[in-house]
Amino acid sequence: MNEPDLIQGRSFGAAELAYVRQLLAEQPHASRRQLSRQLAQRWQWRTPAGQLKDMATRTLLRKLEQRGWIVLPPRRQAPPPRMQPPPAPTDRVSPPPIPITEPLAALLPLRVAEVSTPDASPQRALFAALLRQHHYLSHRSWVGQNLQYLVRDRQGRPVACVLWGAAAWQCAARDRYVGWDAAARRTHLHLLANNARFLILPWVHVPQLGSYVLSRVARRLNTDWPRKYGHPVYLLETFVPPDRFAGTCYQAANWVRVGQTKGRSRQDRPDGSHHQLPVKDVYLFPLHPRFCERLQGTNSEPPSPP
After folding, report:
1. Considering all CA atoms of the chain, what is the largest pairwise distance in Å, rounded to the nearest integer?
2. Torsion-angle region of 113 (φ positive above 0: left; ψ -120 to 50: alpha; else: beta)
3. pLDDT number for residue 241
4. Is 87 exposed, middle or buried (0-12, 13-18, 19+ CB in 10 A)?
5. pLDDT tens readout for residues 131-145
6. Which of 155, 172, 193, 208 is the most core-located residue (most Cβ within 10 A)?
7. How far is CA 259 from the centre of its chain?
8. How far apart are CA 247 and CA 252, in angstroms?
9. 197 forms bridges with which residues in the sheet?
10. How far apart are CA 184 and CA 217, in angstroms?
């Protein structure tokens, strides 16, 4: 390779590749886990909370091998369950006998529970089952930083699920809006969160509920994300397929449509080949009035949406 490439959200060039190859040659009997931890320590690749990103490093090594640049030692054990194909779901959730059609005011106050922690396992299992069964993208165990919200009405009936995860590494429409160059994006990407799943349960037919839930949960992120991961979030993003959804609830919750994706994926190759994905509308929601300044280190103001 001649030019640095962005792999696993990290700039990776000829010097880094040479070191990886040297490490593999010097330690032919080391496990993949040992190699990934050594590399993460050398690069001081850590989360904002200070934890080594050895899993991200291991994924980076696999991608190098997929590109034919290195040969990794054989696996010593099966991949952990979260990296295996999910089993056929057996925990199906039956809809209530009567659909929920009351006005929004009759459902308030909503009970919003963050269920990603081990001590919330029963609610977390229900959250996962609802997404697997009723979201068009389904659901599997989420890797990396994430928050999972199960929303119930005043009677305790589940009405919505909202999942937040790490932001997309690159998105031209978003990056133009923020005013990022590649270096600023790499430095500050962890200060964004992606609304990866949003589900109003199919038996819930309540006008304005979607935008209300989005607004209510977004306010929680200012407290919940720093508490769990040790750093704030200044901007939210989501990608809406226009052939499925009009984005009405995001618009009603004051999210800004800034453009569309290009139909590219993280599996794009340096030789120009890529996996074509559906084009999606890009929506953003600031959690801080000076989010541009916080994300790029300047006093610039956000641009007007197109």
Report:
1. 67
2. beta
3. 95
4. exposed
5. 999 999 998 877 788
6. 193
7. 19
8. 9
9. 163
10. 27
Phi, psi dihedral angles at 282 (to 5 degrees): -105, 120
What is the chain written as a DSSP string?
--S-EEETTEEE-HHHHHHHHHHHHH-TT--HHHHHHHHHHHHT-B-TTS-B-HHHHHHHHHHHHHTTS--PPPPSSPPPGGGSPPPPP----PPPSS-B-S-HHHHPSPEEEE--SGGGHHHHHHHHHHHHHHSTT---PPPSS-EEEEEE-TTS-EEEEEEEEEPPS--HHHHHHHT--HHHHHHHGGGEEEEEEEEE-TTB--TTHHHHHHHHHHHHHHHHHHHHHSS---EEEEEE-TTT---HHHHHTT-EEEEE--S--TT--TTS--------EEEEEESSTTHHHHHHSS-PPPPPP-
Separation of alpha carbons 286 and 192, rounded Å: 9
pTM reported for the whole predicted model: 0.73
Half-sphere exposure of 245 (CA within 13 A, CB side): 20
Percent of the chain with pLDDT over 70: 85
Nearest-angstrom CA–CA distance, 260 and 67: 28
More confident residue, 221 or 66: 221
Structure tokens at 304: 């007007």
Of residues 145 and 263, which shows the higher confidence score? 145
- How far is it, in rounded angstroms, from Cα 263 to Cα 265? 7
Distance CA 164, CA 291 (A): 18
* pLDDT of amino acid 92: 74
Angle subtended by helix axes 32-43 and 54-66, to nearest 10: 110
Is the pLDDT higher at 295 or at 303?
Answer: 295
Dist CA 113 CA 267 (whole Å): 34
